């Protein structure tokens, strides 16, 4: 986020914190798209990302008084979005595990081979593999990858957003890319990096 955008968001947040209820609508206009991009990159599901964004704005509205004006409002609010996204992943994992246990107890079924289509387009395969590899990362790593490579946040901004040390961000990003390199292979990862916007 450029400095002018940070200043505009901070000014709106101060106005809202001081009682200007209309300023919150302007904050939503400023932040809904970046919030959605981060939530979608962490969750990989459009509907879940929309739910998280809505929950984030509700939480920000209720808890705006706990924002310390010495920090950037965008960083504070991004932390809310990433934490909600990570919580949703953990909740989904617990639910999926419960479904798997129930499915294991039920009778096995025969898979229909006709439903197992293979995507013909090389690019579609690449996107699918990358999404799967990113989805397999631990939630905290996934959030940092999303903030860094999809939102263009600096390492310092990510540290502020995640509420951790700069060294932790660097280490987590390194671990994430080491995992992706193992999963995808160096050549594929470099190809993806070359095509990334």
What does this protein look like?
The chain is mostly helical. It has a single domain, classed as Butyryl-CoA Dehydrogenase, subunit A, domain 3. It is built from nine helices and no strands. Helix 5 packs across helix 8 and helix 8 crosses helix 9. The longest helix is centred in the middle third of the chain and has 33 residues.
Give the distance, in angstroms, between the N- and C-terminal Cα atoms: 16 Å
CATH class: Mainly Alpha
Which structural class matches the secondary elements?
A: mainly alpha
Low-confidence stretches: 107-120
Helix segment count?
A: 9
By CATH, the architecture is named Up-down Bundle
What is the share of helical residues? over 70%
- What Rg is obtained from the alpha carbons, in whole angstroms? 19 Å
Properties at a glance:
Butyryl-CoA Dehydrogenase, subunit A, domain 3; globular; 197 residues; 0% strand; mainly alpha
Write a compact overview of the structure shown.
The chain is an all-alpha fold.
